[in-house]
Specification:
Length: about 160
C-alpha cells in the first residue's frame, strides 16, 4: 500500500521512488560482492579493493535505508513534523560540513608543508599526508594529540 503512495501522481519519478530503486540496486551489488568475497576468501586476505567497495556499498545502503525509513514515518501524522525537522537539520548541515572539511584540508596542507609530524603508531603504513589529515580532524573534534614541531626547533 505504501509503495503505491510513493509512486503517486508523479508516475514514479519522485525522490522516494528513485531512492527505492537505488536502494534495491545497491543491495543487489552488495549481495553480489559479498558472494564474490566469500568465493575468493583465501586469495585476498586483508583490505583489498573489493573489501573497500563492499564497505562503501554497505554504508551507502545504510544511508538509503535511513531515508526510506523517514519516508515511511512521514506517512503517520504524528511523525510528519519530526521527519521534516530531521530533513531540515540535515539539509542545513551541508554548508557547515563543506566548510568544516575545507578547513580540515587547509590546515592539513599547512601542517604538511610546515613538516609538522604526528605520532604514527595508531596508523602504520599510511601516507604522511593522510596521517596529518586524520590527526588534524581528530584535533578539531577534541583529541589532544600534540604535533611534533622539532623540525623548526634548532639546537
Amino acid at each position: 500500500m505504501l509503495e503505491l503512495i510513493k509512486f503517486g501522481k508523479k508516475g514514479g519519478r519522485s525522490w522516494w521512488s528513485v531512492n527505492s530503486r537505488v536502494l534495491y540496486t545497491v543491495f543487489f551489488f552488495t549481495f553480489w560482492l559479498r558472494i564474490q568475497l566469500k568465493e575468493h576468501k583465501d586469495e585476498a586476505q586483508g583490505h583489498s579493493l573489493a573489501h573497500i567497495w563492499h564497505l562503501l556499498l554497505e554504508l551507502w545502503m545504510i544511508l538509503l535505508v535511513f531515508t526510506e525509513t523517514l519516508f515511511y514515518l512521514r506517512t503517520y501524522k504524528r511523525f510528519g513534523k519530526l521527519v521534516q525537522l530531521v530533513w531540515l537539520v540535515l539539509w542545513d548541515l551541508i554548508p557547515f560540513c563543506l566548510f568544516f572539511m575545507l578547513g580540515i584540508c587547509m590546515f592539513s596542507a599547512m601542517f604538511y608543508l610546515l613538516h609538522v609530524k604526528f605520532d604514527s603508531l595508531n596508523y602504520p603504513n599510511i601516507h604522511p599526508f593522510m596521517l596529518v589529515l586524520i590527526q588534524t580532524y581528530r584535533n578539531s573534534v577534541g583529541s589532544s594529540d600534540l604535533p611534533d614541531d622539532s623540525y623548526w626547533i634548532s639546537e
